[in-house]
Write a structure and sequence with these properties.
Keywords: Coiled coil. By secondary structure, the protein is an alpha/beta fold. The chain is built from five helices and 36 strands. The chain starts with a strand and ends with a strand.
């Protein structure tokens, strides 16, 4: 078979290609699936062999368009990260489906706790699934990322049973790695001259509206059942607004955690984690450290600017009047540079490893000193270990790249929407139905779902 075919392995031993040498006739008696498979396996390729492709090659040898992808490896899967799961919310979250409508009334079922009550539980990070190259070499999997749970205000974390318990009674505020229990400042009705500006060390709960010109600051969560106009809200926790935001281009809302609202109209919202809106984000400036979602059946982002660290997802982006809309996913140019350098290192190590393997085989054939052979074996082991580390880094880089290059539209993506990912931009010229926008080879690509 060597005189008729050659094999090239690419992508860090994760893909094998079969090439047919030109102007060489292969005898009909040599064209068998069994002999071709045996020859491929003799080259050390043991995993992910695509027998259906080999069969097609044998049956259509004269017309087959080479190269043929004859084997595919399996990349390792990173384990699930450790999480802090709220005890009072885990049941509700486990039964929530993407297509379910959000009931804003449920947002104001405020979690409370009494002294000694279990308020959250830590789940441990899980082991990942190892990968395997086409040569059958195992690529170790990376365990999920752990989190360090901190004792919050009026809570304590028990390291033995991985549970967080309340040390006093009050309202519960959940963060990524701690739980706080705060007293609550409650305003029955609207914020007015009677209440004045609010600055409180715990949670703030307002059952009415927040008119223009007022300022609310809270160390915990801010929950507003009515409408927020051109007011200023600053929260170290989460902000939940049941009636929506009518910012008039003047007010602003900032929170360290998640922001949730019925709608945002001409507002300015900054969230350290996620922004989730049920209906529309209209002519507003929204910036989230992680994700922005607007996925109800009438969820629409039109006009203004939306910036997210990881992903932006909406049922519809833009509108039929072609309002100028900027959608931007933050990127890190340094990551791309590191990824390219790592790829070069992988190629160099693979080439050196191949030469070392050949040298070892020659030395063993010539029965050279065992000590000399062992030095070569040690070098091979070191190179293999370096490759394993680089495989892990490449997988982590791929995960980060995928996270920050995602814009998903379940309905319509309208023209005059400008999408930016990192330093790259693309203006949408024609409508798309059900699309996903991502970065591929330094170019923004729009795929239909």
């Amino acid at each position: 078979m060597d005189q008729w075919f050659s094999i090239k392995v690419e992508e860090s031993d994760m893909r094998a290609l079969l090439f047919k040498k030109e102007d060489i006739e292969i005898p009909s008696e040599q064209r068998s699936l069994l002999s071709l498979t045996a020859w491929i396996e003799s080259k050390g390729i043991r995993h992910g062999i695509r027998h259906e492709v080999l069969k097609e090659v044998v049956e259509n040898l004269d017309t087959f368009l080479f190269p043929a992808e004859i084997a595919i490896g399996k990349l390792p899967t990173i384990g699930e990260a450790a999480q802090l799961i709220p005890s009072c919310l885990s049941e509700r979250h486990s039964h929530t489906e993407d297509h379910e409508k959000i009931d804003l009334k449920r947002l104001f079922i405020i979690p409370t706790a009494t002294a000694g009550e279990l308020v959250a539980r830590k789940t441990l990070a899980t082991d990942g699934i190892p990968g395997i190259t086409v040569f059958g070499d195992t690529i170790p999997a990376q365990k999920g990322k752990d989190i360090s749970i901190q004792n919050g205000q009026n809570t304590v974390f028990d390291k033995d049973d991985l549970c967080v318990y309340a040390t006093t009674s009050g309202e519960v505020t959940y963060k990524k790695n701690c739980v706080n229990i705060y007293p609550v400042f409650k305003v029955q009705g609207d914020v007015s001259l009677k209440t004045g500006h609010i600055d409180f060390v715990g949670n703030v709960h307002i059952t009415g509206d927040v008119p223009s010109g007022f300022k609310i600051q809270a160390k915990g969560d801010v929950r507003i059942e009515g409408v927020v106009e051109a007011a200023e809200i600053i929260s170290q926790g989460n902000v939940i607004i049941g009636g929506g935001v009518l910012g008039q281009g003047k007010g602003s809302i900032r929170c360290d955690g998640n922001f949730t609202s019925l709608y945002i109209n001409q507002g300015k919202v900054f969230a350290g984690e996620n922004i989730e809106v049920v209906q529309t984000i209209l002519h507003s400036y929204c910036e989230a450290g992680q994700n922005i979602t607007c996925l109800s059946s009438n969820g629409n982002i039109a006009g203004g600017t939306c910036i997210a660290g990881n992903e932006i997802a909406a049922y519809e982006i833009g509108n039929e009047t072609y309002s100028k809309t900027l959608i931007y996913i933050k990127g890190k140019d340094n990551d791309q540079k590191v990824s390219f350098e790592d790829e070069q290192k992988i190629i160099e190590l693979q080439q050196n490893l191949e030469k070392l393997q050949q040298l070892k085989a020659v030395m063993e054939q010539r029965k050279m000193e065992q000590l000399t052979i062992m030095k070569i074996v040690n070098t091979i082991n070191q190179s293999t270990s370096q490759l394993t580390v680089l495989y892990k880094e490449k997988e982590k880089m791929r995960d980060r790249n995928q996270l920050r290059t995602a814009v998903t539209i379940k309905g319509t993506l309208h023209p005059n929407v400008e999408i930016g990912i990192g330093k790259y931009k693309r203006k949408v010229q024609s409508p798309y139905s059900s699309a996903r926008v991502s970065m591929e080879e330094k170019e923004i690509i729009i795929h239909s779902l």
